[in-house]
Design a protein that fits this description.
Blueprint: E1 12-14, E2 20-22, H1 26-45, H2 51-71, H3 94-108, E3 117-118, H4 124-149, H5 154-178, E4 184-185
Helix pairs in contact: 1-2, 1-4, 3-5, 4-5
Length: about 190
């Protein structure tokens, strides 16, 4: 299989199902940002994190590929006549959202209560989590815009929303594990 096809040389790309769209279409921006998020999470997974966290991050990466595939599919061609999906992959479900919530609760149980906003940083691994969180929020904003234009499974929006929360709590957990100070944001008066 060749990597280059030359079919996108004039600024269009093909969705799963064959429909061609401009490369700056909101659908392409959305699943492209999900792909960027996946790469950022890979960077977090490459840090010195515990085995449980590595396993969760790997599972999240698989879920993000699922989301990307769903978003890359032409909605008009996504379903077969019997109503089943053309994609031979599992979908994102409420159980996936619940799994993130359970992991957030598990990590949060060992953290001090937040009384202020926290400035990102303190350690490279923590910063990578915050960057991934920001990319996740962008993916969520783009997915929301796409959803208004072309509906897809609402569980994807819920998953991206919960994933940004997960990444925030993971950053806090890593701060604690690495012994770095969380710097509170306290507005300074001029």
């Amino acid at each position: 299989m060749k990597i280059y096809t030359k079919t996108g040389d004039e600024g269009t790309t093909s969705l799963l199902g064959g429909t061609r769209v401009p490369k700056n279409h909101v659908r392409i921006e959305t699943y492209g940002t999900v792909d960027e998020l996946n790469a950022q999470i890979g960077l977090v997974r490459d840090q010195k994190v515990d085995k449980i966290t590595k396993a969760h991050l790997l599972e999240i990466q698989h879920k993000l590929f699922t989301i990307g595939a769903e978003l890359a599919t032409d909605p008009e061609k996504a379903k077969l006549k019997n109503g089943k999906s053309r994609l031979n992959i599992p979908t994102i479900s409420e159980n996936d959202v619940t799994a993130l919530e359970q992991e957030i609760d598990r990590m949060n149980a060992d953290l001090s209560e937040m009384t202020h906003f926290i400035l990102p940083g303190g350690h490279q691994s923590v910063s990578f989590c915050h960057i991934a969180r920001c990319v996740c929020r962008r993916a969520e904003r783009l997915a929301t815009a796409l959803y208004k234009e072309s509906h897809f499974d609402i569980a994807i929006l819920k998953y991206l929303n919960r994933l940004s929360d997960y990444l925030f709590v993971l950053a806090r957990m890593l701060s604690k594990q690495l012994g770095t100070e969380e710097i509170k944001w306290i507005p300074k008066r001029s």
